[in-house]
Amino acid sequence: MVTSQYRGTVSLFLVLACAIPGATAGCSDSAGDDSDTPGDVPADDGVGPDADADGDDVDAGPDAADDGAVPDGPADDGPPVPVTFTRHTIDGARPGPGFAAAADVDGDGALELVSTAFGSMGMTVPNGDVRIYERGADWDDWPSTEVVGTDARVRFPNHPNVVDVDGDGDLDIILPSGFLACEAAMAGACGALGWYEQTGGDWVRHDVVPVGNRLFYHHAEWVDFDGDGVRDLVTVGERKPTFGASEASAQWFKGTTDGDRFERDPRGIGPGLGSLPTVRDLDGDGDLDVASAEFFVGDGSFAWYERLEEPSTANPAEVWQHHLVNADSGPAIQLSFVENLYGDGVLRAVGSNHTNTATRPPDPWESAVFVFDLSGDPRDPWTRTQISTGIVSVAGSMLAPQAAPGIFDVGDIDGDGDLDLLLSGDGDPHVFWLEQHADRSWETHVLAEGLSQAGSIVIADFDGDGRNELVASGYDANVIHVWVRD
């Protein structure tokens, strides 16, 4: 998932009290000397704080002597052991890496990394490429296979969506592409949307939008959008010309049953939304809506489109209504829905804005990540809670403005059973991980320094041992790294 530095003309990345839910027995009071009640854990003496197997309190994350089964809390016997990672290199010489996705492309039961790269900017706009990396003998051995070479003349290949498009039992790759740098560098429009069919080791491109489109695309959702049993593509086309107004157009391409699989002409949803749209039935009325962060157009930070009326003979056009989720977070880059974020079965959304408080004049919005609690009626504004701290973009310049943070992924990073975030700093040259604590507070950790315009943000278990690894790339450093938990 990377989008990047939207403001630049040549910048490339616009891109629980007792810890156990429902537990009440043995919860400590503020002094830590609770009076226990029947039903406490077996190691308890019935007088003081509840004990787990190593004799400390019922708590929320492993401490030095803990058995890892319960988390550290206020009455624990010591601070938790810091979670540490060892960094390995997937590719130390990949020119301008961008987005990535984890998928079992070859069907062998293990995940591979599908990675896009933009190339290195010079006097001309480079052609990009797509490669598949497979873990080899160890964490520093990642042989790769080319899917799209630079001779295909695809510029800025963006987020790959790895799915079985043609229904033949193997995985194909949906590839949106293009960016504002093409027009800014006087190279002409370079937007495109296509999919690559896996055919016995070869990859065959099918165009939905041929290369050279005035709108560029960062991500396409593959979903049965109209309920006819055939999956469609839902996306947002964007444009930021050197002169004139920016554009963003939410649209979808209807799926077909022929070999190319999609209509060539988009069906309009409406102006607005942004690079990484997501599709779900937000209002519970049985049809699908579209939501995303917004950057290029509109006054909002996060928004969604409600489907009001299906096309009919009398009214062949669909009817959609645009709703703001939040309008005071500044330009934003990603909005993702997360089921059960806090372990309570409730759907919430996580969003990252894309701002710069170091530039002159500074943006008035702190660069941050937020959790949104949806309203009972999602048409009403959602409640926003900031969960990150200390994210600050470098100032940038007129030719290469910067902003932070970037894209993120959600998963259990530290192995404690709850969900955390892996986050690109983008204009902030750090990769962060946001740790969720048992009380729903969040702590911002630095995973890596000096990795500006980070992309390829992926949380996945590549070796199948039940522990997630973390992937991030550095556009400026031309590297892709993986972090393995110690």
Task: Explain what this protein looks like in three dimensions.
The structure is a single chain. The chain is an all-beta fold. The chain is 1% helix and 37% strand. It contains one helix and 28 strands. The chain has one helix spanning 181-184, and strands at residues 85-91, 97-103, 112-117, 129-133, 144-148, 161-163, 172-177, 191-199, 202-213, 216-223, 232-239, 247-253, 267-271, 278-280, 289-293, 302-309, 319-326, 332-339, 347-353, 369-373, 383-386, 408-411, 420-424, 430-436, 442-449, 454-460, 469-474, 479-485. The strands form seven sheets. The protein has a four-stranded antiparallel β-sheet, with no helix packed on it. The radius of gyration is 24 Å and the shape is globular.
Largest sheet: 4 strands, antiparallel
Helix content: under 10%
Name the beta content range: 35-45%
Give the overall shape, derived from the CA principal axes: globular
Report the total helices: 1
Order of helices and strands: EEEEEEEHEEEEEEEEEEEEEEEEEEEEE
Structure summary, number of beta strands: 28
Radius of gyration: 24 Å
Structural class: mainly beta
Q: How do the strands line up in the largest sheet? A: 1-28-27-26
Low-confidence stretches: 1-70
Overall residue-averaged pLDDT value = 86
For the termini, the CA-CA separation is 25 Å
Provide a brief overview of the structure.
This protein is mainly beta and 486 residues long. The chain has one helix at residues 181-184; strands at residues 85-91, 97-103, 112-117, 129-133, 144-148, 161-163, 172-177, 191-199, 202-213, 216-223, 232-239, 247-253, 267-271, 278-280, 289-293, 302-309, 319-326, 332-339, 347-353, 369-373, 383-386, 408-411, 420-424, 430-436, 442-449, 454-460, 469-474, 479-485.
